[in-house]
Amino acid sequence: MRLLTVKMSSLGDVLHTLPAVTDAARHHPELQVDWVVEEAFAEVPAWHPAVDRVIPIALRRWRHEPARAWRRREWGRFRQALGAHRYNWVIDAQGLIKSALVTHLARGERWGLDRRSAREPLAALAYQHRCRVPHGRHAAYRVRELFAASLGYATPASAPDYGLATRFPRRPARRPAYLVFLQATTWPSKHWPVVYWQALARHAATHGFRVKVPSGTVRERRCAAEIAAGDNGVDVLPPMGLGELAGVLQGATATVGVDTGLGHLAAALGVPCVSLYGATHPGLTGTHGQGQRHLQADFPCAPCLNRRCRHRGPSGVNPACYGTLPPWKVWDTLQSLLSGHAP
Fold first, then answer.
1. Any idea what DSSP says for residue 165?
2. Strand 234-236's sheet: what is its strand order?
3. How many domains does the chain fold into?
4. Which of 137, 159, 211, 294 is geometrically suited to a Cys-Cys bond with 282, CB 3.0 to 4.6 A?
5. What predicted TM-score, i.e. pTM, was given to this entire model?
6. Domain shared by 121 and 218, yes or no
7. Does residue 158 form part of some domain?
């Protein structure tokens, strides 16, 4: 029996789909799962033991370089890979028009959210079977409901199992103990102020922790270098692949992060994490799993869901809403989370 999962992006959304694959494999032990995913996240589904084949797609890059993609016949090779098998189930776990089009091209019975449940209602036209999954629940649980309805079993009430224990077995935190600060995010409105990160690093050093800060892009490296300015026990990590970063996160005592995909990776690995939310809200798409603490800004216009802070009143920091999440408050929350993990 073969299942094709279509969940292409982004990192958090891909990770939120893993528990549904775990559920499906437990109810159908003979199940083989293929997965269509954006090339930047192609290694993530492969970490799950039930995933047999990953089919990378490059829609983000193709939109910017259509002529180059055409010359290289990349679309044709993707179509060939997509059509290599006929599937018992093809599940669009994303509910967008772009994912629905990919689902429609696959061979097999197509399942997805109905028009009232999908983020983009027109996507429902691509499916032969449409499932009602109510809004107002966490994204990971909604995907579990969709898979259960499609494959014919009751949605488990158990905690999410991301299926990563084989690939990344949880071990005691490494010594010397360290924290990971996850400061990188694409929205300017989600960036916690650098001076706050610096103050939090000083708290960490006082309590015997070193701090590691991942950096990928030029901007992220510049921000990480600012956090590390001065002798505060901060190590700026070089650019790494997701697998390498998973290894770093796995050895951490805990992480502190903004609303970013790496925070979801930490949660999937079972690493304790304090996540900070200003412009966004954790209720439907926050980090999901054991050992997670969410701190939501208490500000009149939060969560605004805007990429840039539009507050025009007086404020000591930017984004303004983070003034309600100062370093001491974050550190107090982290200490309560780490009651059994202090070095």
1. T
2. 234-236, 210-213, 178-182, 254-258, 273-277, 292-296
3. 2
4. 294
5. 0.94
6. no
7. no
